[in-house]
Design goal:
Largest sheet: 7 strands, mixed
Number of domains: 2
CATH class of the largest domain: Alpha Beta
Number of strands: 12
Distance between the termini: 49 Å
Order of helices and strands: EEEEEHEHEHHEHEHEHEEHH
Strand content: 25-35%
Oligomer: single chain
Radius of gyration: 18 Å
Helix content: 25-40%
CATH topology of the largest domain: Rossmann fold
Length: 274
């Protein structure tokens, strides 16, 4: 008998993967967490039946949400990650000479599942520069300041993550950043969530001096074409010279990608300008 996992990426679109084995399934205090072994995409983690990562393509998301803002800043020392309990973003941040990384993940069981089933992502949890806080990221940002870069590595704007996409939250993020600080958030697919992208872009651009959308291709996310929205207090990310960036051990991110990812297709420009 065939076993399939299916995610409804919209009310009319379903994405399915053939499953080899179910490795883990549990209702946490916040969401339903599962880990599967698949035929095509390796090991996957889902939350409330939505794919969060696969071992085959996770590097795209984690490299792009991390290296673009960190190299835009050029000298980050203290970085905050809100969400990101799988550890992939932490892994990429620690490739930079940062001094402190704070991870704020509301669901401790996501962290524990990643340690057990995704060791290639969670290895940064044991780095002495990493501190982990299992609490509400919205409240944490209100009470902690002095960050060079804040990365909002959240799930979709549903359930426990919905407050991470509000204008009030972005204002608190602004206050938590240093004068040359930068924030970035994952902001969904322009194909399926254009209205959402427009709202978030408008909220962030009303607070930060520079607001820019950049993109990446992530096969298992809705539409496969994904956006990130960056807010910067003083640094224009499009003025960064990629030729001056150092090399890193990456699979997707590169100097050329850093420059080209800010070039938006006309339909995305129209979404945020109409």
């Amino acid at each position: 008998m065939e076993l399939w996992f299916s995610e409804y990426q919209s009310k009319n679109v379903r994405f399915s993967l053939r499953i080899k084995d179910m490795l883990y399934s549990r209702k946490t205090p916040y969401q339903f967490l599962s880990v599967f072994e698949t035929e095509e995409m390796g090991r996957i983690m889902t939350l409330d039946d939505v794919v969060q990562l696969t071992t085959r393509d996770e590097f795209v998301y984690h490299e792009m949400i991390s290296h673009v803002p960190l190299f835009t800043h050029r000298s980050p020392e203290k970085v905050l990650v809100i969400g990101g309990g799988d550890g992939g973003t932490i892994r990429e941040i620690l490739k930079h000479p940062v001094k402190k990384v704070h991870l704020v993940e509301i669901d401790e069981q996501v962290i524990e599942a990643s340690k057990k089933f995704f060791p290639s992502l969670s290895l940064g949890f044991s780095d002495p520069r990493t501190s982990i806080f299992c609490e509400d990221g919205i409240e944490f940002v209100k009470n902690n300041k002095g960050y060079d870069v804040i990365i909002i590595d959240s799930t979709d704007p549903l359930g426990p993550a919905v407050g991470l996409f509000s204008r009030e939250f972005y204002k608190d993020v602004f206050s938590a950043l240093n004068n040359d600080g930068i924030m970035v958030a994952q902001t969904e697919s322009p194909f399926f969530y254009g209205d959402f992208l427009k709202r978030v872009y408008g909220d962030i651009s009303s607070i930060f001096r520079f607001t820019n959308i950049y993109t990446a291709v992530i096969p298992t996310y809705p539409g496969a074409f994904w956006t990130f929205t960056m807010g910067s207090k003083s640094i224009d990310p499009t003025a960064v010279d990629p030729g001056e960036l150092p090399d890193l051990d990456t699979k997707y991110y590169s100097r050329d990608i850093h420059k080209s990812c800010f070039v938006l297709p006309p339909f995305v420009k129209n979404i945020i300008s109409k």
